[in-house]
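This week, study the protein below.
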Amino acid sequence: MDLPKYYTKPVDNPYAGSLSALDANGNPEVVDQSKLPGTTAMLSPRVGFNWNAAGERRTQVRGGTGLFTGRVPFVWVGDAISNPGSNPNLYPAGAVRATGSPPDSSTLAQSFDVNAIDPNFRWPQVWTTDLAVDQQLPWGLLGTFEVLYGRDRNAVLMRNANLRTPVGTVPGADGRPFYGGCAFAAANCPNNATSPALNPGGFGIYVISNTTQGHSLNVSFQLRRNLGANASAMVGYNYLDAWNSLKSTEIASVLWQNQPVQGDPNRPGLSYSEFGQRHRIIGAFTYTRTWSPSMRTQIGVFAEVAEGNRFAGAGGNRYSFIYSGDVNGDGQGGNDLIYIPRNQGEILLDPCGPPTCATALTSAQQWTALDAFINQDSYLSSHRGQIAQRFGAVNPWYNDVDLRVLQDFTAAGGADRHGLQVSLDILNVENLISSSWGVRKVASAAATSPLTLVRFTAAGTPVFNFTGPAQTYIDDPSLLSRWRIQLGLRYLFN
């Protein structure tokens, strides 16, 4: 059982309570930034088993099910304390005391946005069920088949309580909700343009709450075999299908601002998780040769073939196709998933020239380039007539081979043995052999944001320029596409 408790008490905030706000269902609510959730018991019942089904461990069935509680990233809780908006009980941002000295570092100050936590917020919980079978097979093989399924009970969700209800929909085939915001001059705004915020000032009221949406399925298969006394080999396959409602990021407000959405930003809905490879095949081989009581060599080879690359910082596994600009008028640009047109009649394109486009292009020329771009991408070409999914596209397959060599030198010293171990690791061996091998492919930033919003028509239809490249993928410039060598030395004694 977990008992989350917060020992910091925020300063009373009459300002936050005076703001107009809407809850997740679009009903009026009062947001009290100065109140953190109370202490609520988080029960985590679990049960597991291990059954020797056939005797002598020839068939072993194991598994379990239970509820697992995880800590919320405390930076989000800290944001709720350090972002109180214009709380009159705090110093204004950058204010100076009457003595002329600035507030000390322990004094909280007012902020632009308001961050708050739903009073009924609960720490993340996942119900996880696992079932596995280990089976001894002919030819000395040991096989393992395992299924792991998880379902969110209290996943984290971020909403902006300062977002008004939609004032209409985007005309045409797109049809997503339109919230009235317009980042252009009045002459280029739709007729129903208005502020997307309930309160004047352009700030956000970002509230952390929970959702029960989210699940994952992980299926794996593995074969292992000892090859005599000195060698062993293993091969395995893993399939992952993971869905959630929230893109991961560090700052609480950015959880909402950078969330790619198809429709309502406060109800992002289920889509693919950005983490994890969809398909992954691995293999390993180890060999040990003892030359003498004082000298031993170990060699290991690890190979990986997978789809989706590896998650690193800003992404790597999956990606989203988004507009450059604020198409749904929610006051936040760069978070609207693109509508993939079936034909030229489903998108308006303005003529484009430098610096937006490298050369002057007519609307027809841009459509030709956009149509070719869609056709060369397997995800886009198979989803014409739809709004792209959040992280719906996955990076291509890649392969990687790593080599490790360990050399042990041992010397006896009375009752003790002393030794040195020299290690050599060569990562991405293929790229060491040829500069064109072992290079991964990733979607470029220009490809994932191929359409730039130029203006709206008087009827509210968005007009774009196609600013994307001809191809989706480029060579991954990270270290994952380059060979690396590591040398190590360890002193061993016992």
User: Anything to note?
Assistant: Helices lie at 14-18, 74-82, 252-257, 363-376, 378-381, 429-433, 445-448.
